[in-house]
Design goal:
alpha/beta; Aspartate Aminotransferase, domain 1; Aspartate Aminotransferase, domain 2; 2 domains; seven-stranded mixed beta sheet; four-stranded mixed beta sheet; 17% strand; globular; binds pyridoxal-5'-phosphate
């Protein structure tokens, strides 16, 4: 660390609430898969801002769209139509084979939108008695930070001191179809889960679980809503992670990469009968669906397809995963992943994931630990093969304790 780094860190730490525990590096510039700190050091980004940077930093085509639109019309609120939102909605719906969408900004807002939608759907379509609707969720979930969402978190660190919480949720173990089936009552309106749990440590459920969940939902007239905010839009080597399981949900929540690395753009995308529960006045967001976000989101989807980011994620992900599996390090307990989304379990008796991340940082690779024991590798999907090879050698060195 040096003077400049200290200067910026001190300011953030003094005037900013300490709701994160960042690595001690101060970034100032990004391009593609690479970022630079204020000292001029260069790092390969293996975090991609939790998938928000799937397109890489400052993607030139998305940047051009942003700048062009920023000089024309940025915000007009949904009090009026705008000439960008319709095409964005159409492209988004067709991409994931759904009927309608509702655009918000942050991921958490889109999850809240999903909660409102499925509850109202339950009252209107299942005739659930007023205020009795139940939603089933999975343990170790991560869906965001609002009070509504943390009400169904099983992670105490997300909840301590923030009660009272919202009723109406049942938590069942992730990957346990029988427990889920047993939790269903006539008042259950929906199951909301991630298909692969990101913040929990890239946790992949048992093969066939999601399919079983879908069948249970169908049999009981319960909606299946998948939170693909982190797993979606190519991260796992498919447009949606649920495609690996051959499952089509009733609605999907998207965010992060939907903003192309420039803006917060999120959406609930789903069946017509679900999205049609919203009537004027029942839900909204001042910034949701603004023309700047809509044009950036649209270009983000176009770039993802034009540059075959999904195919790259599948191909490079398999290559990367195999390379990591070949490292026989005493620190590694497990290596797993789908596409360019890989979690390495570190044996806490040997090393902390944090110390591995700090060592990787010194070697020019930015990752971030999750839950103290998992190091995640999720580079931008635009990463070049030679950069990936360079990283694999560095990672091998760090994990071998060299
Ligand atoms: C990041 C994330 C969210 C929350 O998104 P924000 O934009 O941070 O509100 C919700 N669900 C999943 C699966 C996520 O990874």
């Amino acid at each position: 660390m040096t003077e400049k780094t200290d200067f910026f860190m001190e300011k953030e730490d003094r005037f900013g609430a300490h709701n994160y525990h960042p690595l001690p590096v101060v970034l100032t510039k990004g391009q593609g898969a690479w970022v630079w700190d204020v000292e001029g050091n260069k790092y390969l980004d293996m975090m991609s801002a939790y998938s928000a940077i799937s397109h890489g930093h400052c993607h030139p085509r998305i940047l051009e769209t942003l700048v062009e639109q920023a000089g024309r019309l940025t915000m007009c609120s949904r009090a009026y139509y705008n000439d960008k939102l319709g095409e964005f909605l159409e492209t988004l719906c067709k991409l994931v084979d759904m009927d309608m969408a509702l655009v918000m900004n942050s991921g958490a807002e889109a999850v809240e939108t999903a909660i409102k939608a499925v509850r109202r759907w339950g009252y209107q379509h299942k005739k659930i008695p007023d205020n009795q609707a139940e939603i089933i969720v999975t343990s170790s979930n991560f869906h965001g930070r609002t009070v509504g969402i943390i009400s169904f978190s099983s992670d105490e660190s997300y909840r301590v001191g923030f009660g009272p919480f919202l009723p109406g949720f049942k938590i069942v173990p992730f990957g346990d179809a029988k427990a889920l089936a047993d939790a269903i009552t006539p008042n259950t309106c929906a199951v909301i889960t991630e298909p692969i749990q990101g913040e929990a440590g890239i946790v992949i459920p048992p093969q066939g679980w999601l399919k079983e969940v879908k069948e249970i939902c169908q049999k009981n007239n319960v909606l299946l809503v998948l939170d693909e905010i982190q797993s979606g839009l190519g991260r796992t080597g498919k447009i949606l992670a649920c495609e690996h399981e051959g499952v089509k949900p009733d609605a999907v929540v998207l965010g992060k990469a939907l903003g192309g690395g420039f803006l917060p753009v999120s959406a609930l995308v789903g069946r017509r009968d679900l999205l049609e529960v919203f009537t004027p006045g029942s839900h909204g967001s001042t910034f949701g669906g603004n023309p700047l976000a809509a044009s950036v989101g649209l270009m983000a989807l176009k770039v993802m397809q034009d540059e075959q980011l999904i195919e790259r994620s599948a191909e490079f992900g398999t290559y990367f995963l195999n390379a990591l599996k070949q490292i026989s390090s005493p620190f590694i307990k497990d290596v797993r992943g789908r596409g360019l989304w890989i979690g390495v379990d570190i044996d806490p008796a040997q090393k902390s994931a944090r110390s591995i991340c700090e060592e990787l940082m010194r070697q020019g690779i930015l990752s971030k630990e999750t839950h103290e024991t998992v190091v995640r590798f999720a580079p931008p999907l635009v990463i070049k093969r030679e950069d990936l090879d360079w990283a694999i050698e560095k990672i091998r060195g760090v994990l071998m304790g060299e």
